[in-house]
């Protein structure tokens, strides 16, 4: 692959990493997809091993992303239905107030749902904080997995083009 091609893959990876933090794009999939395209174009053993390592790191992060925060939220007694309402409100908020509306809608949705269920402001706010911590943990785990995949790709490029 030419230098320009490697730069384009690196750019796609950077956009993917940004997409994890600002959920406009499916960031993690973009990172792995870019590395997969690079491996396909290179077509060498090193490129495919690099892709396999990157994909394994990212897959492990995705498993952790969906198990660790959920376990913590269950311990805090945050119901799944509340998170679904928060996600729906975040989706609507994203279109009402682009980008930051996602966070505002999620917080408002979780708080309103918890308040309707528990009828206690303090408990509703505590559940909202736990839900936000869970989302932040989830984003952090996905970002870590994508960063590790990007590092694996960088090492693969270095090995091949040193």
Structural description of this entry:
Helices cover 88% and strands 0% of the residues. The mean pLDDT is 90. With 162 residues, it is mainly α. The relative contact order is 0.16. It has helices at 3-21, 27-42, 45-75, 80-96, 100-118, 121-161. Helix 2 (27-42) runs parallel beside helix 6. It has 6 helices and no strands.
SSE inventory with pairings:
Elements: H1 3-21, H2 27-42, H3 45-75, H4 80-96, H5 100-118, H6 121-161
Which keywords apply here?
162 residues, mainly alpha, 6 helices
Number of helices: 6
Run of helices and strands:
HHHHHH
- Give the CA-CA distance, first to last residue: 13 Å
Counted beta strands: 0
Outline of this structure?
By secondary structure, this protein is mainly α. It is built from six helices and no strands. The longest helix has 41 residues, at 121-161.
